[in-house]
Amino acid sequence: MAKFPFTNFFDRNGNGQMDFTEELLAMKVFEDALPGEESASCDETENDGLDGLDDGLSDEIDEGDINSLIDQDLGLHSPDFLEEDSEGDAAIWDDLEEDEDVWDDSQEEAEGPVAYLTFSVESREDRFAKQGARREDYPTQRAYDAACGLIDLQNGKGYVPSDSTRQREIDRRRFLVEGGCVAARYLTLHDGFLYAQAVKENFPLPIEVPDEDERPVTSLDDLFLDLAEEDPALAVRVWAWIIREFGPYPQYMDGVWMPFNGLLYLTFRFPPEFREIALEELCQNSDFRRGLLETSPEFPDAGGYIAYALSHGREDQAATLLQSALKNPHGKGVLYEELVKDMMSHMIEGRDPEPWEALERTVFPILEGLPDKRTQRLLPQWKEEVAQRIQWRRPRPAPQPPQYADPLAVTDKTVYTFCGVRFPGWKRVYYYRTDDETLSVGDQVLVPGRDGPTPAEVVSIQKHRRDTAPYPVDRAKFVVGKVAD
To answer: Contact, 307 vs 267, CB < 8 A?
Structure first.
């Protein structure tokens, strides 16, 4: 600490106090004059002027140094150093007695006690300790930095990012310091939450996770991709815990997508058993379901999970998820439409109509009660599309030959010969009567056609009475004959 006298000498504005600019001026002058932290004092003067100072500056100042002794703003100078000194001024300096000080006692009495300037460097810790923030009172450096920043922001100082406001920054730091919950413990000043560090400190993990303090090192998606491969059940429990502990504070997240819709979307990259376990957990754990679907900061992208439940015959679980998703306050017509399309796109492909019939039974009755104009306008189109998909997947019955009433079927016991023939390029079999007992399977014959006798191949020879004939006996046409070789 350095002390400097002659405080009033540098009082430029005459207010009796030293402001910061005047202090800098005084410090500069005495830095140039003193080699160390010594008090500035004047030697006794001789009749012929000043010999020098006791601080080691004994060399006589020449003409070239005059400008360095003049402050252009203050206009301060010693008349003994100027060539243009008036005779009167020179006489004043020459009349000094041999032992008389330049600054006599009368002047000191008139001006009062000598004032001193004190310069010191106060550490950051000392400055905030005076305001009640001591490092040892906070568990982490992040919490201490937040407390210091909170003090500055409340005093009108501190840094406010361009995309934020002072009040938001105050609220963030106050939550970090005073929150007293898991989310507050792992909040950073600028990079959201330390999810990986929180999971590492609260769950025994089968994977390696690096330590985090000031900012995240492991992203949430990377954490779950690794954890789900090793232990899908643990990954689901961790997900539910994150939604419970961090979900209520989306305003402090560095992006709200990943903990909610991000992990819903990434499910297809996890092992199959992860979705199975997550579906059960969502339906049984009301806190998890409410935080992920009903109160999430974005409308939930739950179509994949609803379709999975429908495709596996779990209509009750599908209804539970859909009803929870529709409670989300961010839902509206376009988002409802995207949810339905997402469900349809995730339905299992195949010929089985049952999943689509389950969707028809489960989803549409719920949507019919939704008071949304766009949804009600599009609902008939969705119903028609699903009905077509169901119809396409339902098995078609085999075509049955037409049935004719034959009045002689009961009384006529005659046996008739029928030839089953197939035309070239056709799969269907047509039946004709014949009296030619020499015909056999594989023969090429001519049968009556639209344009006259038409070649066909015999594929069967059958004996029938009227009541079992494949075609009415009286309406059946006869084979014309064999094709000539």
So the answer is: no
289, amino acid identity = R
DSSP run (H or E) holding 286: helix 286-289
The pLDDT of 129-141, averaged and rounded, is 89
Q: Which of 319, 229, 202, 307 is nearest to 264 (CA)?
A: 307
Q: Is 462 helix (H, G, I), strand (E, B) or coil?
A: strand
Distance CA 481, CA 446 (A): 6
pTM of the model: 0.60
Locus of tokens 């360095």: 68
What is the distance between the alpha carbons of residues 481 and 351, in angstroms, rounded to a whole number?
A: 46
Distances (CA, A) of 140 to 77, 135, 187, 188, 435: 56, 9, 11, 11, 106
The residues, ordered by sequence, that sit 6+ positions from 302 with a Cβ below 8 Å of its Cβ are 264, 293, 321, 322, 324, 325, 339
Return all residues near 273 (Cβ < 8 A) that are at least 6 apart. Answer: 232
Q: Tell me the per-residue pLDDT of 70-96, one tens digit each, with 9 for 90 and over.
A: 444 444 444 444 444 445 554 544 554
For residue 478, give the DSSP letter: B
